[in-house]
Amino acid sequence: MTVTILFLGPLRDAAGEESRAVPAPLDWTGLIGAVGTDIAQQLADDRVNIACGGRVLADKTSLQAKDGDEVALLPPVSGG
Q1: Global pTM?
Q2: What does each C-alpha distance from 51 to 54, 62, 80 come to in angstroms?
Q3: Is the dihedral of CA 1, 30, 26, 68 positive or negative?
Q4: Which superkingdom does the taxonomy of this entry point to (predicted)?
Q5: Domain residues of the chain, as ranges?
Q6: Potential cystine with 28: which of 6, 22, 36, 61 (Cβ 3.0-4.6 Å)?
Q7: What is the Cα–Cα distance from 67 to 58, expressed in whole angstroms?
Q8: What is the mean pLDDT of each run of 10 residues along the chain (80 residues)?
Q9: Per residue in 11-37, is it b (16+ CB within 10 Å) or e — as a string?
């Protein structure tokens, strides 16, 4: 029973990996503990979003990932 955390963009560089499997279920507190201090600090930024099961969460602290879910960490997108 696992949840897959997907690290996208610069968060992938910070994590040193594209994804990480962690035990299910996974909530906000568990996510913060699973990603490490550097990424946890970035997740505190309001511009970083979280998607669970393909849906972006309006309130990322409401994360409730179940077995088989993918949790994508979405850094801010810059444009020009």
Answers
A1: 0.93
A2: 6, 11, 24
A3: negative
A4: Bacteria
A5: 2-74
A6: 61
A7: 21
A8: 96 95 98 96 94 96 98 81
A9: bbebbeeeebebeeebebebbbebbee
The tokens describing 46, both together, are 């309001």
Domain 2-74 CATH (choose: 3.90.1150.10, 3.10.20.30, 3.40.50.11270, 3.40.640.10): 3.10.20.30
Query: What is residue 26's predicted lDDT score, i.e. its pLDDT?
Result: 98
User: What pLDDT, on a 0 to 100 scale, did the predictor assign at position 76?
Assistant: 86
CB half-sphere exposure, 34, CA atoms < 13 A = 21
- Write out pLDDT tens, residues 51-63: 999 999 999 999 9
> What integer pLDDT is reported at residue 80 of this predicted model?
54
